Amino acid sequence: MLARKSIIPEEFGLPGLASRLPRKPVFRDRVNKARFIAKNGSCNLAHKNIREQGRFLQDVFTTLVDLKWRFTLVIFTTTFVSSWLLFAMSWWLVAFAHGDMDPARKNETHCVTDVESFISAFLFSIEVQVTIGFGGRMITEHCLAAITVLILQNIVGLIINAVMLGCIFMKTAQSNRRAETLIFSRHAVIAVRNNRLCFMIRIGDLRKSMIIGATVRLQVVRKTTTPEGEMIPIHQIDVQTESAVASNSLFLLAPLIICHVIDKNSPLYDLSAMELQCSDLEVIVILEGVVETTGITTQARTSYVSEEIQWGHRFVPIVTEEEGVYSVDYSKFGNTVKVSTPSCSARELDEKPYILIQTLQKSELSHQNSLRKRNSMRRNNSMRKGGGSLRRNNSGLVPPKVQFFTPTEGGQSLNAVT
């Protein structure tokens, strides 16, 4: 049995109408991925299956500096105690070979005086290496072996002191300690500046000692696939800033706003407000410079994922002039205010300039309307205050009541009319 045809033509049915409707792009939810750089600047990277572990021993000093404090202190203590024990054994062998521990030779010349046991040899080893010199034990000129051991222990002790104390000094004066006082805004913003769509962040220095030759670099990290099908999990793309284009270092005296113009060379050129929230990119910010007080190069890092980039916001001003002094309010360091910004991509703005013009006109109209409302509210408040004071001032000027009397027909009674 044949199927009965529908009265409505197929092109006007629901499937036909749905096929002809313009389809909007469907954005998939962004999959949460690990950050490459944490907010505090630490690298979220784990090294596994390193077979050439001996390379770390070739650079012992850097390895000791990179170790954690507890391991460094353990190595520091173990090194000194081991050297004391090693040379204590040497002094005990010298005294034993020369016969200093023999009671029968008590009155004869000794290599080291008052070394009669291993404990006394250990105490003498500490005195020699640390140069305490209590004076109870000492070597004599009659034993060449003792003089040789004394020279060797002094040389080895100086080397150990130089390496371990240098390691402790470098750990306490590391550049990342200075980077703790270099701060970044919690969020990045995208807004229109000088008629161009810009990506902006704010940086600041909490110390009065400046960072000499400070430079800021931006990198966009994202997972990409080449035309040949090669998948690159961490593709780093350099992003130019206004300071980098001018090839001048930053004068980081007060908090600055770092601006990146989103042009055709920017990796953010094709991203709109909605596409940005669904993307998996990460913007890394690197601030480098020389510490003025120590002369050590320092580096501070942070990153911004798509959830931390606010589209259509601008940083509020935090620098004011108070009594001839510029004051910085760090409580508003990361505060932003919403401004009129097209939600389309920078490419679309370049192809359709009227979108930006319409947005700016709407922003100007809304600003004028808000000013009118504000002025009218002030005028109404002033009129209310003025009317209340006028009523209060005229309350004592109420005219007295006047009575008018009209005669009646009989002429005898009068009616009072007020």
Automatic annotation (TrEMBL):
One cellular component (GO) term of this entry: monoatomic ion channel complex
Gene3D superfamilies in the record: 1.10.287.70, G protein-activated inward rectifier potassium channel 1 (2.60.40.1400)
Source superkingdom: Eukaryota
Catalyzed reaction equations: K(+)(in) = K(+)(out)
Keyword annotations from UniProtKB, A to Z: Ion channel, Ion transport, Membrane, Phosphoprotein, Potassium, Potassium transport, Transmembrane, Transmembrane helix, Transport, Voltage-gated channel
Subcellular localization(s) per the UniProt record: Membrane
Topology relative to the membrane: Multi-pass membrane protein
Protein name in the entry: Potassium inwardly rectifying channel subfamily J member 8
Species for this entry: Poecilia reticulata (Guppy)
